[in-house]
Batch of 4 targets.
Target 1
Amino acid sequence: MQIVCISRGTLAGGRALAEKLAAKLGYDCLSREELTEAATRAGIPVGKLEMAVVRRRPLDERLALEKDRYQAFVTATLCERALKGSIVYHGRTGHLVLPGLQHVLRVRVIQDPERRVEMVMERLGLDRAKALRYLEQVDEDRQRWVRTLYGTDWNDPGQYDLVVNLSNLVVDNAAAGLVHMSRLPEFQVTPVVQRTLQDLLLAARCRLQLGSDQRTRDMDVRVTAQDGVVTVTYLPRDAQRQELLPAALEGVEGIASILCTMASTNVLWIQERFDPANPALDQLIDVAGKWNAAVEMLQLTGEEVEPERAAAEPSPPAPAPAADGGILDDAQAPASEDENLAAVRQRLIEAGRAGSVRRVPASSARQVLNALDRSAPYNLVVIGEVFCDKNHAAQTRLTAEMVGMLAENLRVPVVEQKDLKAQFLFSPGQWVRMLVLGLLAATMFLLVFTHQLPVGEFLVKPGTSNRILAVLAVVAFVPAFAFCYGTFTRLLLRLLRFE
């Protein structure tokens, strides 16, 4: 059940490379065009979605729901095929519909721009200028499609494990190199990978079922699954119909239980160790209550793949390795951590703020970023205790790097757990600060407007020394008043829940 995802552009050689690689490995080869045709046959208007993106039209509510159905269809199809056997998928960004799967080999294929222009001129009979405009337009449309559906940059090399330039490399040799790379331990299947695939498949099937049921097809929901526990997050406007969700999912196999939670957005909480006695839990519940959000927990196992030396001689295509696969089995966690995680989740369920729970074997900020679902509507990301096995200095540095990387890529506020209360909750100290600064701002305001004549005379008093004093007074007074009034206003808006 190995998965190789090849991201290709127009006439970049990605299709030929994918087909050659699949033939060498003995894997099934699946293209985006095949998935698009199958989705269209299933009643998903992929053509309308693409036209809306190409014409730069914002997706209306109906098309936004169809976008979710399309993503769920692609995820379900890839997971079903992968669970049956190893596959090579070539399209735009197939790995983005498989969040959390660390073993996917992600390859981007590029070609010399001049060579692409020559191929367009030859195949379409266009002159060079028109061929160049054609390629620029197609590349721009594809980049906009990826940005619209997944909220990421198609050209970001950080999205891929390898970028293959076919300008000076023949397809057969490139495929031979990828064969060897695909056999590295980092891209083999472990029990935790298989369970992640099953969870993704279950969540995608549930989303498709909700989208096809007449009672729930117009509900904007987000579905996740963890070990058979399906979490369905719906908007407040659908609160009266939430009892329809379990009924619509009755026919889906593999569901152990269903948790329905109402939220307009999600707060993502990332930690290695969850503790029900952590004060941050109450703070997160308060923030989620103010924002009407669900708290999604992402537990980092902090376990890295232990690479082993590859075989000296290439072997014929073979099935995926046994359960250990030369990789440390990261499926099991200590019982105490499981109990703590369950206790934290129970607290969130009791508060009505429980989102999904996921465990990700990540040990770096980039791995965490790759494991996230970019289409999820996060409004806040909270970084708790991470990199716990490092010394204090390294932990501080790596945590700061994670905060910066997630903030830059997700474009939402990302804060450390210790700063949550100060930035998003109203404490007694902030009450005092707001009242004192408000009183100072009001006093400064009244003094100026009740003594306008003396102030005016002071500002226009002749003489060089008097003018210097007037400038210094203005320079000192204006920032002081702006600080007092601005801070008072910010705290007042926070008190009134205008974050």
Target 2
Amino acid sequence: MARKQQKDEEITLSKKDQKKVDKLTAQIPYHEGRGNKEEVEKIKAQVDAIWVKTKEAAFA
């Protein structure tokens, strides 16, 4: 399993995807402060989807 972890660390996002992830994660504290849990979950799901897409592309 340590081998898989090492491969995950080597995966990097494209500039476009990194910009999206940075922009989305910056919004999380704002929505958490407002108590908007639904929006926080939605943002986290979007970030996870970007990572999944990147991992699939890396291993395809």
Target 3
Amino acid sequence: MSPKPPAISGQVPDSGRGQPRYGRRRFLSGAAAAGAAGVVATTGTTASAQTRREVRMVTAWPADFPGFADSAVRLARRITVLTSGALTVQVLAAGEVVGPFEAFGAVADGRVQMYHALESYWQGRSAAFVFFAGVPFGLTGEEHLAWIHNGGGQALWDEVAAGFNLKPLMAGHTGLHQSGWYNRPIGGPDDLKGLRVAVTGLGGQVMRRLGVSASALPGREIAPALAAGRIDGAEWFGPWNARAIGLPQAARYVTYPGVFAPGTAIALGINLDFWANLPVAQQQAVATAAAAETTHTLAEFHRNNTRALAELRVDHGLTPRRLPDAVLQALGEAAGRVVAEVAEGDPLAARVYDAFIAFRRESLGWSRQSLQSYLDARLLPFRYGP
């Protein structure tokens, strides 16, 4: 089952002051183009030297979805600037031209040129797509980037997507998620049995293995359902996005770590025929824009989740609780089985799974010795700063 894309109301707070919004006809502003004039020269082309093309990018998000919607706008602007306006990218929110689940087909058949979405939405097309978005107990953001760019992941992704006339690029990453928002404490695996939890995709399959009644809800309906007792909990990105849909006001308990999605990659999907006919300089400009936006979103999600986490304590009296090891062990064992089953019966998905698992296994040693050990050391009670 493909995970349900977020759908949230127009009452969502701005993701940050001064950040761009988009509508049906939002293009690169003259001021932004002027400010990027120094970058434009790197493409080796000028707008006057070639035909301008209007490129339509459909997204899987409403226009007010924090982080994701603004990322699409920035990416469009980067591409427009780096191609000196030769590719002028128009961003269209979910529902303006096609629905979020229709974006894949619209780009594949050439009705539009690009989509901005999560590859896990296309699991029904090929099970292999989930590995390029993120899976439970999978890769961290840094590890995922390393697999895609330096570990053979991009070549496999290209192979999977080419079967649908698509060229994929990573164009964003959320970094680590929070985990769950609940109205009941979770002290052990048995506490999960019978809970009604809003969680989708592979995370939902993992939860069902432990006796949870997992279901998909549009984002705007989660907090009211939790407050009214129609559900007992929800898994939803990090505190920044959770704040946008009102979860801090509805939940009594917040849990971590976010093992259902140790990070989610955002994809730029491009019609393969359109891509193949672009000059090499424009292909490089699009790839450069996507890489830059990936770095930007990682930083943006980190900064805004940091602020939102502090607000949980100050404004809502919520203190996140670490899930007990017994719960994490049970979730991990279930996740291992669910992820392995994704690749069953699909030779290409099996190849992607094998490569993904091999890279994850290789990464464990260095990540433990580097990131994990450093974070443990940083938590020691020594004085640092005023």
Target 4
Amino acid sequence: MNNASPLADSKRLPWIDTARGFAIFGIFMVNLLSFHGPYFMYGNGNNFWGIGEPGFWQAIIDIFFQASFYSLFAFLFGFGMQIIYENLLAKNVDAPRKWLVRRLLVLLGFGLIHAFFIWYGDILITYAVIGFLLLLFLNRKNVTLVVWSICILLVPTLLYSSLLFLASSFGDISNLANRAAIENANQHYGAGSWGDILSQNANDWLYSNQVINFIFTTFNILPIFLIGLLFARNKWLHDLQAYRKTLQKWWIGSLILFVLFKAGPYTFGNPLWFSLLQDTIGGFASAIFYAITVAFLYDKLKKIFRLIGYVGKMALSNYILQSIIGVTLFYSIGFGLYGKLTPLQTIAVGLIVYPVQIILSYWWLKKYKRGPLEWLWRSLIYKKKLPNKRIPKDEGVSEQTSNI
């Protein structure tokens, strides 16, 4: 019986680490809205901060970040899943899906710890659970992947958006803020004990992961998983020159949809009924646009992109670290900034924290091959303690190291 083993460094695509690094940055910029206050989840969508005039900064986050970077990460998740599956098949590993299931189960474990003991806004549980559905599509034809992706994305989105549009014709649907929930969150996160915070955190996770919410999340995430899988299977981003025309078509098409669905709503007041279309179709398109753009620009901007790639090589560790930093900065058990920062100040936090993460990631990767959680993830998958410390000949940060 053949055993699975981690993918050799020489086979990795360096732009993937940079794309992951961008995704981690973008996810943090959006997550800061929830770390800062309850308005992003419990508000009516008119003001993510609850204080100050959101205006320009809210539009920037909404157009370029919201739903775009977790979708980019989902694209890379599907892309990576296909590469891992092909690697297992190439090595004639018995029951390759078993290894993928084990990988998802370990990720689910990380997500549960993160969601209930650090921060409710976890995406790892979502990716792991929906990842099990992705396994059903590994051997499907390309046309099947495209058809399922389009149908899953469009049908529920169009139906729900149509209902919201009809509801808006009978009256104002923008006054949906949950005042009681906002007050509870402000009290517990802003002035509560550790126990209060954990209790509020659990309640917020349950609220944001209600069955109907999770169903719509699946309709949002699974299609981009499938497109990532499609790109990896066809090697479109493995050889940019060979598939340049194909990639250019995807790039132009995704850019058009990006502009129409992410920025377009602002030309007619950015109504609430359009928000799901903006996040699903717009987020889907912007993720593909960002991924192809990073791949195209990697060789031209290699020096800058390699810096961002250090964060991407430790994506899981940096994602969890961002949550720890967010809790420390904003909750009452730390610096207590919950609900106190202006939009510009909140964004500044992200712009300060991320360069620090680049430095920490570079420093760590000079000493170790993988990030701490990436190493633990792999060790749990293979049920053995894998070597991680760099030996003298490996000193320096390998451009090819990745967490695929």
